[in-house]
Design brief:
This protein is of the alpha/beta class. The chain is built from 20 helices and 13 strands.
Length: 523
Amino acid sequence: MTGHVFVIQGDIRRFACDAYMFATDKRLRDGGGWMTSAPGAPDRLDPSLVDDFKSERRFTLPLVDRPGRNDEPITILTAVPYYGVKTEKEFVPRLEEFFRVGAELAAHRTLPRELTKREKVLLAVPLFGVGGGGAGRIRGDVFRLVYAESRAAAARYDVDVAIVLRDPRDYALAQMIRREMPDAWAELDGSQVEDAQRLGAIASEARLVPFMGAGISVSAGAPSWQELISSLASAAGVTSEVREKLRKHDVLDQAAYVRQEFERRFRGEHDEFARAIIQAVDMRRYGLSPAMLAALEAEQAITLNYDRLFEWAAHDGQRPRRVIPGHSDSAERWLLKLHGSVDSPASIVLTRDDYLGFNADRAALSSLVKATLMTRHLLFVGFGVKDPHFHEIVHDVRRAIPDKGVPFGTVITLSDDEVLRALWKHDLEFVHLPNARILDIFLDAVLAYGASSHAYLLSKGYLSTLSPEDRVVANALNEMIVAVPESLHMGATWAVVEKMLHGLGWMAEASKRSWPALPEGLD
């Protein structure tokens, strides 16, 4: 099976991949965006390649690794055409060189894939050259080119590619284009595509709510639940013989035993157990799953994870979420962290005592989940539906609404358990996928089918790539806008129309040409 091309929203610098492209110009001028392309970028230029890069004898300039940090993605500076862009075809040799260099360099660095358990090299590219590169006026055509070149590279080098977009208009257009391509998800069989379309239809109505477990953070190198317990046991000095015996017990009891060992070994250090958990799970870059799930339009999201990957992905994808419990802010969307967070060690729920004390301490949080179960469709990802707290919540919902009429959620699972399916047949639907990579491809399809924004329709730079039908609509709307005198724009009726037009990209704020400071945690 050859590589797949994903589309996500986010910040390419905080994306967990093997190598990523950062577009720049050949001069490498002081103050340019390339200086924030990666931590310490100005000190990581390879002097043996700089002259060739500046003279355009080569288009790519990989940054050298930071000492002891060969687990980080390779940053590959890639030059845009220096004298402007006449046609998107000028990007082809630059894209081809990036994919060749990225695939070759990444093939010799196995540590990132060992940490993230990925089957294939994962390369990340932005929408090349549409900012300061001069191709903003043809950004729709540029996406089609980048997508085509990414698919060609995925087949040629047997790698996966993620196109990482910053602008919501680019993301909306990308998903529209892919929905029209019958082979965009050739790795999925017919029933899997039908399931993706079913969930996408729910997502398009902002009713699909992600309920996330430890599995979605594995793509960033985080441990699974059992791996976390094992690593904590090792840190506490538990012998290999005892660790093997521990595996026969419930994970809550395993965690309780390990906590006791921490307290015995680190007398007087009451927070050592929580610090060890945080050290194990506090990843700095999000993988594919958090980035894709963060793009869902639903107001709610629920997680059992302690890390901050989902909220970082939501922020970078311009869909910020308020964390509950946590500091209040103005974000309309929220993320409920049922089992605590790395930035609040005292909130972490792991042992049986923690679970038993949950309802007494955080009954309001459980109520939020119950309300969501009653009114939305939950998408369980990276989650085994065996969590005792979840069972308590579902029990209460069943008592309140004995017959909801339709399943309240869909479980994406990598293990086909007919007993679980029988136990939950009235409440849950199951989608069984063969491995984690196919799961990511499935989510990629769900997000494409669920994208409902048309923010590109009236935006500059997209007209040439619209379908003939959409072009007629766009032209008619633009004629209507011109026909309404500005003196009438103060009326109440125009305010309603203007809101609709903004949703279609009219007078949308232009993409920022300069890159912001490095994201939190990347130092």
